[in-house]
Amino acid sequence: MGTVAVDVQGVSKRFRLHHERYTSLKERVIHAGRSPHEDLWALRDISFDVGEGETVGILGRNGSGKSTLLKCICGVLQPTSGRVVVRGKLAGLLELGAGFQQELSGRENVYLNGSMLGMSKAEVDRVFDDVVAFAELDHFIDNQVKFYSSGMYVRLGFAVAVNVDPDILVVDEVLAVGDERFQRKCMERIKRFQSEGRTILFVSHSPDQVRSICDRAVVLSDGSMIGMGAPGEAVRIFREHLLEVDGDSSLGASTSSPMVAPESLLGAGGERAASVGARSTLAGGPGSGPAGGALEHAERPVRLDVVRVQYPGVGERPYLLSGQPLAVQVGFDALEPVEGIVFTLEVRDAEGSAFIRTDTSILGEHFDIARGPGMMEFVFESFPLLDGVYDVVVGIQSRFGGVLFDWREPACAVEVMNPGRATGLISIPTSATLLYGGLPGAPGGPVEADGAAVPSAPAGGAR
Amino acid sequence: MTLEVPASAAPSGPPTRTRSALDPAGSTGPGTGPGLPTGGATRAKVTRVVSADVSVWQRMADIWGSRELLTYLVRTEIKVKYKNSVLGLVWSMIAPAMTLAIYFIVFQYIARNGVPHFVIFLFSGLLVWNLFQVGVQTGTGVVVNNAGLVKKVSFPREILALASMGSASVFFVFQAVVMVIFMVVLHSAPDWSYLPLVPLALVAVLVLGSGLALVLSAVNVYLRDTQHLVEVLMTAWFWACPIVYAFQANIGNRLGPRGLTWLYFLNPLTPLVLSFQRALYAHVVVGNTTSAAAAPLRVLPAHGFAWYAGLDLAVLAIGLVLFVVALAIFGRLEGNFAEEL
Questions:
Q1: Which of A443, B68, B251, B284 is spaced 20 to 30 A from B258 at the CA atom?
Q2: Which helix (H) or strand (E) segment is B63 a member of?
């Protein structure tokens, strides 16, 4: 492995929260020695290193200490204990255009900001045209920056920072500036930095960004490092953590054990928070039917029983790898034989939009069931959704859908972790081929390249 | 990288294949591209340590490394101060000229101190004083006033305090030019043999002022009273310097017989002001202008060059010690700047 560019060694940072801040002499004297404060550990013993040429993302909720960590790495803040060793020239983009002087022109600010980021005048001279071109400010570069629009301002800030020629670039959620085209340009520049073997550390709220750029990612929570690893793994940890913190413990629980106890879900129009996770008393107790329930017990010849998901390695880990096969097993209990029963299945995301909606009649299956318990199974040969926790909703209907026998929302949840680099919503087997136009000598005739995250079809043949 | 995926994967069904895509992300991550050796890796890399304790020498090295930033900050401060004003830099001369005019009228015509070429005498002392006072006073507020910068950009913060001293030096240069013009117009020659005192005293005042500015700027972050306190103390300090009154006639001759002159020299600016006066005003004993019959005025101590230079060097030494201590104090206080601002 290469050398270490940034070595974070047991960094902790304590903030004193003064409930009342005594900054004047009188107040300090009056309240001498008993300034009320609370200690807030914004960072607790964080240790990791970033290899040269590596891109490491930092994930975490608001207030988890991401920015504090970056500030410590940049040297804006000093850690209370521990230290950071930085090898090479570091340019920090904690806030774009932070060093700008309102009264000066864009040109003067480029020089000022450049020297703040550690460039000599000659170096700024050399990149000046690139900076202006990148920021698209040809006409305005000699205007005072106080007359700039906010977009122009941040464009110039970014343009300076990326032209500083740093060994290490530290970026704090600043990629969300400018219009889409400029953002693309920023991303492109960052990727070029990567290909040039520079080290990048960056904070993002967007797991997609982390996945598509980073080699590794660190997950922070309340100042502690709760995970570090390949982006897919880190994103999963981050997401799981988000769920826990949201207090949506029911969902968190159901992800760790994909099996959900049978229960009646038809109560009060399917409020899921109330229904999930809590063992229902309704199912077993006749007569204690759900208030306002749409279906009376008498009209429910079939009820749902256990609903669970199955995938390779279901016992070992609480998540499915994107592209693996997934089976949803639906247990049911019939009070009487039913002909032509229809099972429905929906897969929804957290917002409730259904990605997949199907039923047995669409699938061309015809089931007649006998009295007593039974189980059927939906199988996805390859589950294409990428990261996330998805709700599985199942229902049982009469033959033509006229009568809804039972419905459970959500019946269980399935967590998907995408180990690859693809982002978006779904991943389906994809291959890429250069049909013509390649270099003559190189593997330049038509060459086959498989998408990284895609379990490509001709994998067996490639061997 | 992507091409390796099917090759290295053991294609035994979808699960393992997708997992294999995970491996290159993790293991071949560091060492991303072929550009690695040619990009940043070949040039010499500076190792920087961010930690709560950085030695004073390291701090000095950092400051030296950012000297170009210092010039930019000085330039910026001056530019910003007089931006959009018609007279611009002329203002930096108008204020001291006004002070000069007032003291001149008050002491020459109302209080009648009888010093000939009093303008030159006054101006030589004011030059040093203005440099010191402007530098220290703007330096005190400089970290607080640049909170935005301090909170977001990483650079040796000491530079800010030094830049205040730097911009004060620029104003000093302008005032010195005016001083030269005055001397030419009034046919007042400096004492050429004492002229080397000027750069010596200048260095001493810069070092002393920088040290003070460093400490005060850091303390001011925690105790905002500092800047007001400094403002008040500066007024007192001004009158503790022999600028508008002659040292020898008013202080030396009164404290001297009692052996208390050293008390007055506790003010480190005294030797520096005296050096400027000795070199530029040049007259140790002058005839009183109030009446021909009056006894001649002893303006400055009648000591030799070595006496002046020795005192200046002593102040310089004190200044250097203060500067090092100031860096240490600044370093200690700097840790919480970003959260206190």
A1: B284
A2: helix B56-65
Helix ranges (H only) for A6-120 are 25-30, 66-74, 106-116
Residues of chain A with pLDDT under 70: 1-2, 18-23, 28, 30-36, 174-178, 243-299, 401, 442-463
- Which of A3, A14, A23, A30 is best to mutate for the B interface (most B CBs within 10 A)? A23
pLDDT tens digits along A348-396: 887 777 888 888 988 888 899 999 999 999 999 888 888 888 889 898 9
- Per DSSP, the three-state class of A7 is strand
Cβ proximity of A68 and A43 under 8 Å: yes
Token pair belonging to A135 = 């920021």
Burial A44-63 (b: 16+ CB within 10 A, else e): bebebebbbbbbbbbbbbee
DSSP state of A145: G
**Parallel, antiparallel, or unpaired for β A224-229 and A320-321?**
unpaired
pLDDT, average across residues B116-137: 90
Q: At B93, which helix (H) or strand (E)?
A: helix B91-104
User: Which has the closest alpha carbon to B146: A121, B327, B155?
Assistant: B155
Q: What is the CA radius of gyration of chain A?
A: 29
Nearest to A416 by CA among A401, A427, A431: A427
| DSSP H helical ranges for B146-188 | 147-152, 158-185
> Per the CB < 8 Å rule, is B154 touching A92?
yes
Closest residue in chain B to residue A234, using alpha carbons only: B26
At what angle are helices A106-116 and A121-135 packed, to 10 degrees?
120
- Which of B5, B142, B157, B216 is best to mutate for the A interface (most A CBs within 10 A)? B5
Longest dimension (CA), chain A: 88
In chain A, whose CA is at the least distance from the CA of B149? A99
Name the pairing type of β-strands A224-229 and A326-334: unpaired
Strand partners, A328: A309, A378
Main-chain phi, psi angles of A17, to 5 degrees? -95, 110
Cβ atoms of B215 and B329 closer than 8 Å? yes
Ranges of H-type helices in A246-326: 249-256, 272-275
Residues B195 and B161 sit within 8 Å (Cβ to Cβ): no
pLDDT tens for A24-54 read 777 767 666 555 677 888 888 999 989 888 8
Of the candidates A122, A97, A95, the one whose C-alpha atom is nearest the C-alpha of residue A109 is A97
CB atoms within 10 A of CB A86: 25
Contacts of B229 in chain A (CB under 8 A): 25
Q: Which amino acid is at A427?
A: S
User: A324, A423, A447: which to substitute to probe chain B, counting the most B Cβ within 10 Å?
Assistant: A324
Look at B14 and A194 and tell me if their CB atoms are within 8 Å.
Answer: no
Token pair in block for residue A110: 């480029």
Determine which helix (DSSP H) or strand (DSSP E) holds B227, and give its type and residue range: helix B225-239
How distant is the Cα of A168 from the closest Cα of chain B, in angstroms?
9
How close B98 comes to chain A (CA, Å)? 28
Q: Which two tokens stand for residue A45?
A: 């013993």
Strand bridging mode A55-60 / A216-221: parallel
Q: How far apart are CA A397 and CA A400, in angstroms?
A: 8
Cis bond leading into A410, ω under 30°? yes
Phi, psi angle pair for A410, to nearest 5°: -85, 150
Say if strands A55-60 and A404-417 run parallel, antiparallel, or are unpaired: unpaired
Token look-up 């070992």 returns A316
Distance CA B164, CA B141 (A): 9
User: Between chains, do B47 and A86 touch, taking CB under 8 Å as contact?
Assistant: yes
- Sequence-ordered alpha helix ranges (H) in A150-308: 150-162, 180-195, 207-213, 231-245, 249-256, 272-275
Give the residue from chain A lying closest to B159, CA to CA.
Answer: A116
Distance from the Cα of residue B84 to its chain's centroid = 26
